[in-house]
Amino acid sequence: MRTIGNVLWLLLAGWWLALLYVVAGVVACILIITIPFGIASFRLASFVLWPFGRRSVFRRDAGALALIGNVLWILLLGWELAVAHLLAGLFLCVTVVGIPFGIACWKMVPLALLPLGQQIVPVRDSSATLAAPVGRA
Predict the structure, then answer these.
(1) How does pLDDT run across 72-91, given as a tens digit for each residue?
(2) Which residues contact 21 (CB under 8 A, 6 or more apart)?
(3) 114-133 as b/e: b if 16+ CB within 10 A
(4) Whether the predicted model's global pTM rises above the 0.85 cut
(5) Helix 35-49 and helix 15-28: axis angle, to 10°?
(6) Are 77 and 27 contacting, i.e. CB atoms less than 8 angstroms apart?
(7) Cα–Cα distance between 65 and 113 in angstroms, integer?
(8) If residue 86 lies in a helix (H) or strand (E), which one and from where to where?
């Protein structure tokens, strides 16, 4: 089922949303200081191209630099990508078949706004990552 969902997603919205992330990554890689934004954008392009069966989890070792980077990301590139996800979700929800894809697109809006400090993991590994004990040795 995941493969069918990913193929339909790719045809309906995935390819052009991934293209937006690739363009944002190329723009971000122009300056040396914004290369981490470009790398994050390329990572998100891969996720947006083939999302079903994977999810995003917050890395516990992300620090203050990720927070500062996310604020800069929102100002420079993130809000445009979030608007693209909102519009794509709206257009996908026009048909009954597209409603699950529109909802999936809307679930990617927080990731489009705050990509630094996020990690893309397979669905089967995400529960183990989230449930890992903190601070016990």
Answers:
(1) 989 988 899 999 999 999 99
(2) 41, 42, 44, 45, 48, 81
(3) bbbbbbbbeeeebeeeeeee
(4) no
(5) 170
(6) yes
(7) 15
(8) helix 79-92
